[in-house]
Amino acid sequence: MLLDPASLLVNRKAKQRKTDRIDATKMVRALLAYDRGGAAVLSRVRVPSVADEDRKRLLRERQRLVKERTSLTNTIKGLLKLHCIFDLEPRAPEFDVKFAAVRTANGEPFPSQARQEIERIAERLAVVLRQVEAVEAERDAFVSSGRSPRPAVARAGSDAGAAAKIATLARLKGIGVNDATLLTHEILYRDFDNRRELASWAGLTSTHWASGELQYDQGIGRDGPASCAVKTPLTHILTRNGIPLQILSMTDTLYRGVAACADWRAQPTSEEFCGDVRRLHSAVRGATPLQG
After folding, report:
1. What is the dihedral sign for C-alpha 132, 135, 141, 144?
2. For residue 115, what pLDDT is reported?
3. Cβ within 8 Å of residue 208, ≥6 positions away
């Protein structure tokens, strides 16, 4: 058992003394309160296996590279627009050739310091683009290895089982390989005992406000992983066309999650949403065959 003393409840109205003796005393008291039934004192953390955590690395590396690619591209475009140049695409293969002959809107030579800065940024962008291609090629190869076996046949928790889940989700119209990878490696590998746990993890539980006669709902909490909280509701929009009624019924309430994100006054039905995700989870595991 591991306990983090920094996560224990303390009085934040004054400076706190911190020593190993004080931390040990607080942890023992917390354990005693938890043993007496105080569920709010400590929360159990389900640590993923080494294999499950390692499978996330490829997806998260791509997410970081895509953010860096967008940042570098926007920086180059901003420097070009500063001199009224709008027709150059930094990601285009012929960017270096066109940029070498570019002139400002007044017909004057491009400023030397700005040119050198753009060239250095373009070099970093080229490296990022090559790394994105390499990561996506590795991801596609991993998914291709799981197209033949069924998810029910592949051993749960193995690379083959994860690849089979991604291949199954990718067969649905509107769900690409990247979204299927995110759903598999970030959500579907987890075990949720009930809808409340799933809703709490995804940040889709409603936030009630009740004080005297004033009672209303502030909307969903949005305290879950940002990538999963956005991608999962958008699955409904992407898969709206061409999906069998069985799968469509699983994603019907996901649209309400998007509406709740757009309007904080909406009251999303988190229980229905989590029930649909749990049924989709069972289907991907092989309990229910998917079509499409």
Report:
1. negative
2. 94
3. 215, 216, 217, 218
- In this predicted model, what pLDDT tens digit does every residue of 59-101 receive, in sequence order? 899 999 999 999 999 999 999 999 999 989 999 999 999 999 9
| Cα(134)–Cα(62) distance, integer angstroms | 10
Count the neighbouring beta carbons within 10 Å of the beta carbon of residue 67: 11
Residues, the chain, total? 292
Q: HSE on the CB side for 127, CA within 13 Å?
A: 7
Give dist(CA 252, CA 244) in Å, integer.
Answer: 12
| CB contact at 8 A, 159 and 165 | no
Can you tell me the distance from the alpha carbon of 17 to that of 25, in angstroms, rounded to the nearest whole number?
A: 13
> Could you tell me what percent of the chain has a pLDDT over 70?
73
Helices vs. strands in the chain: H and E counts, helices first = 11, 2
Cβ atoms 26, 42 nearer than 8 A: no
